[in-house]
Specification:
six-stranded mixed β-sheet, 7 helices, 196 residues
């Protein structure tokens, strides 16, 4: 049993069986039942063809980590997951209506405060040439924005030396503390900020 759980942890078989959209829907349903938190999932552009397996795994794991953080720290009632496949990549937003947190302070103390998951999300996206941006503030909820390009960058690249990177822009919300926690370029058009 332990070996089977470990294997599922490394590569969720549900992704092979159902694809990312349905896998996230099932995970969201189970999560809502377990934690009493409403999860609204919106997926666009996933019907025509499957995403590359490394991208599906990365996005699935990022959602898991983000929702784990919500259950542990946010005291939220509702979570929204919006996943959009665009011509040049995938954009995913996970946002909650919880208590929020000070992003700068949490990132500075993550090694000792148990918030290593924030860096785990960043690393998963960076390995695919993508980026993760986190916005939050006390009493303002939290938004995790993930961008992963698809053209020629869907496989894991061990050597990223020499690539020019820049800090991705964050959504313009002056009332919220925000910080980009990974490097990587944006692609395609920039979607409108999610409406609360």
């Amino acid at each position: 049993d332990n070996l089977r759980r470990l294997a599922r942890g490394l590569h969720p078989s549900i992704l092979d069986d159902l694809g990312l959209g349905l896998a996230l829907a099932r995970y969201a349903t189970d999560y809502a039942k377990s934690h009493g938190i409403t999860v609204n999932l919106e997926a666009e552009g996933l019907d025509s063809s499957r995403l590359p397996p490394p991208v599906e795994i990365a996005l699935y794991r990022i959602v898991q980590e983000a929702l784990t953080n919500v259950a542990r720290h946010a005291a939220a009632k509702t979570v929204r997951i919006a996943l959009t496949r665009q011509p040049l990549g995938v954009h995913m937003v996970v946002e909650d209506d919880g208590c929020g947190f000070d992003v700068e302070t949490t990132l500075r103390t993550s090694n000792t405060s148990g918030h290593l998951g924030l860096y785990g999300m960043r690393e998963r996206a960076m390995l695919l040439g993508g980026s993760v941006t986190i916005e939050s503030g006390r009493g303002k909820g939290t938004t995790v924005s993930v961008r992963i390009p698809l053209e020629g960058k869907a496989s894991v690249r061990a050597d990223n030396e020499g690539r020019k990177r820049h800090i991705p822009k964050v959504l313009d919300r002056p009332e919220r503390v925000s910080r980009a926690i990974s490097h990587g370029g944006e692609f395609g058009r920039r979607p409108s900020p999610p409406v609360r």
